[in-house]
Each structure stands twice: as structure tokens, then as C-alpha cells.
Amino acid sequence: MIGIPSPPGMVAAIPKYELCRDSPLKGSVGFCRLIWSYGPRGVESVIPFARARQDGLYGALMPYFPREEAWQIVRPREALLHALSSPPKGLGREMLEALAFLRSWGLSPAELGLTGSLALRAENPAISDVDFVVYGSRAAERAYYALLSLGEGERAELGGISAIPPLSSGWRRNKLGGTYVSWAGVPLEGELCDPLRSYFSLPTPRRATRAEVKVEGGQASSLLYPPCVEASDGRYLVSFEYLLGRAFYEGGRLEVRALESWDKRVLYLGLRELPGEIRKVSP
User: Fold this and answer.
1) 242: containing domain
2) CA dist 9 to 12, 68, 70, 75, 263, Å?
3) Which of 35, 110, 233, 244 lies at a C-alpha separation of 20 to 30 Å from 45?
4) What is the pLDDT of residues 24-73, one digit of tens each?
């Protein structure tokens, strides 16, 4: 799981694809897409494993298994190097064009990895995106402005969260030529948001609250997953809906309905128990 810590010695296993025979969505190596939505509901609905662990913040069972039992682990940086040395047949040209575009905005190959169907060699040119992992907050800012230069994009689907004004998804998924390019930001060592550093010891927040907070814009931690920003009163906003990252990054005076941590330091949006609301009151 990109951006979410795993228990020591364990590997997260999100069952996004399965082997299939006949499907219009079948990729080049016989995989069919299984998961269509992320977040607690989408992930929990497709977990076929008995060995799942309750994730307190996500409010859902999450599947992990011991690293030594992994037959193959696809690492984004290695997947990108492999794709460059042996370009995928389906979207090889589009991948190289997307990489050149990001490099023109100052992103180096060392700050990028490949994920999604291209990393698995399960791409389908008719429906697949070129999906990158972007490592570190500084690189995430460059990716943010790079994709926004292509336009506002589509209206964001926020998984039950109410957002006023509505948000667009163009900052992290946009069309380059005829192919969608998307990215996900991953914190480097030392960049993990303060309230998430002890992730697996955090109790599940249960108290719903409304709050108005002032957020200084330009906090690059909002462009990593999960988006996280510090408000002027010392509280934090954390979202498990990635597309709220833009609202966090732009900042301003925000009114939210969220789940509050037990110590009242953190307001969580995008959880299964309460997706939440966010409204921009003023810049």
C-alpha cells in the first residue's frame, strides 16, 4: 500500500487483479482488474484472505502476509527500470512520452517508479493509465504542477465526501495526448506526517466533530499519501481520500466534518465510518 506503513516483516497485498480467461478488460498477460475503488470500502470488499489485520485508522480489514512468503514483489523503481529496458508492447511509447513530460518539469528518473497495470505487464491500451509513483514531497510538488498544466481534468469522485466547492482530479490524473497519466506521492524517510509515525498503535477515532481550521497553503505533505497538513492551531488534517490533497495544498480557512482522534490533535477525513465534509470558507 503506497504511503501506508506495513507491520514489520509484512507485505500488504491489495488484490487488484486476478487471473482471467475472457474479459473485455483483460490485460496482455491474462489479468483482469478486480478492484475498482480504493479506500476502506473498495479494499475490504475484495479481500479473500483469512490472514487479515484490522487497521484501526482505515476502519477495515487489511491483508498482509510475511515477506518471506512472497513469490514476487513488484517494486516501482525496479518496474520502471525494467520497462525502460524492455518497453511494454501495449503502452511503451505512451509511457516514454509521459516520462519525458515529467522530466521536462524537473522530475528525475530517480524520483519516479512505475506502478499499476504497466508494472505488472497487465496493461490494456484501451483502458490502462500510465501510473507513476513519485518519491518525496519536493518531487510531488513538481508532479502536481506538471499535471495541472494539462488542464483541470475531470470532477473528482470523492467516495462519499462532500466538498464545496467541488474538486477536480486533474492534478493527479490527466490526459497527455490520448492516454491518462496518473501518479501517487510517497513520503521519503523522515517525511511521514507526525500523527502517522506510530500508525499501528493509533486507536480508531470514533468521535464525529465539526471544526473550522486555518491551513497555510503550500504544505507539500498534502500531496503525499495520505494527505496531511498542520493547521495554524497545531491540529492536523489527515485524509484517506487522496483527491482532498489539492484542497489541503491550496489551504485557506476550511470547515470540516470529520472523525477526531482521542487526543483531539487530528481530524480524519475519508474513513469508512464517516467519509466527512470539507468546505472552503475563505482563502
Assistant:
1) 200-282
2) 10, 8, 11, 16, 29
3) 244
4) 444 555 666 656 555 555 556 555 544 566 676 666 667 777 777 766 67
